[in-house]
Design a protein that fits this description.
Helix content: 40-55%
Structural class: alpha/beta
Distance between the termini: 46 Å
Radius of gyration: 25 Å
Shape: globular
Largest sheet: 6 strands, mixed
Number of helices: 16
Number of strands: 14
Strand order of the largest sheet: 7-8-6-9-10-11
Bound molecules: guanosine-5'-diphosphate, magnesium ion
Amino acid sequence: MVKKIIPVVDSYQERAVAVGVEIGKPKSDFTLEDSLNELCLLAQTAGIEVIATLTQRLEKPNPQTYIGAGKLEELKAIVNELGANIILFDDELSPRHLRELEKHFDENIRIIDRTALILDIFAQHAATREGALQVELAQYEYRLPRLTRAWTHLARQAGGGGGRAGSVGGVGLRGPGETQLEVDRRDIRRRIAHLKEELEKVKSHRRQYRRRRKKSGIPVVALIGYTNAGKSTLLNALSSANVYVADQLFATLDPTTRRVILPDRNEILLTDTVGFIQKLPTHLIAAFRATLEEIAEADVLLHVLDISQPTAQQQAQAVFQTLKEIEADHLPVFTVLNKIDLLKDPRQTINILEQYPNSVAISALKGLGIDDLMRKLEEFLFTRQHPLTLELPLRETYLFQLFSREGAVDKIEYSGNKIILQGKIPGRHLAKFTPYLYKFPEEKTALRELIP
Ligand code: GDP
Ligand code: MG
């Protein structure tokens, strides 16, 4: 099915036809159309206008051209008719699919997949050195297996095609019997090794910083959520900090931490993070591991959900899926329903609050519900005692002391080299004890439900 979109802005030079393919049964709750709509927003963020969309449902991808032969003809016709210069695939194309598809189109028509697009947006928005290094590494790792003569040629002509990460570094002295392509591959490999070393250094800095932060004893709350949910806006609202806020996907790439004083003068460190998105390629997650590790190191997660989105529930699921992947799904989650100012009927807020029983409704932009959120967050972290039962190894004397000091011990039982401990502890300490929860799976899930 082809859907033409009437251009809103005609100043775009990049005009794309977007192609969405559903292989087999739907793998997530995002429909083909939801995903394609999101791709259009991603494209817009990257300065590309999508002028038509094309969809297909397949049992399995065509081994050569990914889409079927008939669909390929349809695509060619629409690209010609509309004068598009980009074909944008909503999935990651294998190097082989990309090469085969390129054979069917003119050299001036670029074929880009979702991964390349997200990488490009990441590259545009990396603000710190670490962010820039991570994106560059991910870009090279993505490009290495996809390197073709044509690509190298174009990249060199364009003088590095699209920023730092596009240039191969000009070391290209050809060894005996080496082709240009081999030289390029060798350069890229060398660059990848160098980037990895640099990142390792940044990482050890970050570790030291984290250690210092831990010593301070101030609880760390990490803002998490789907991209564009309003995390940076909320950080601003809570801290009046001047963090970069933009109506773009992935405006924030690097974690920014601010100190926030709550109504009863308790302090927290609030950390902004990169947004999650469905179909975030695995090697991209790997590239951003250091950034994402910040999340796993937090004491509590503040999950921001854009409740004005029809796909809010699916977005929440994508967030929890990513948490699992970065092994941060043991942390207590506090849910914030954001953008209530966009709901047409105020009664909708009440309905939605009922759907998410443990949540606070706010508008980070209009400052609605912020006081309520601060009070409930403070209560959760500092005042309320959360009941739990632990199976604590005797060697964890530090944790035992912490529990006795900050919590309330109701019952204690010794069993071999373990203590079975029943009691209560304020929210800011919960995460430290989750690895030792008694009756593990149930309690672990129950923790998720702990909210203001
Ligand atoms: P992030 O990607 O989660 O950090 O999202 P941002 O904080 O950058 O916000 C994305 C967009 O949503 C920006 O245009 C914000 O102005 C807008 N936004 C954030 N919170 C609200 C809100 O409560 N109401 C409305 N209407 N817009 C909001
Ligand atoms: Mg942000």
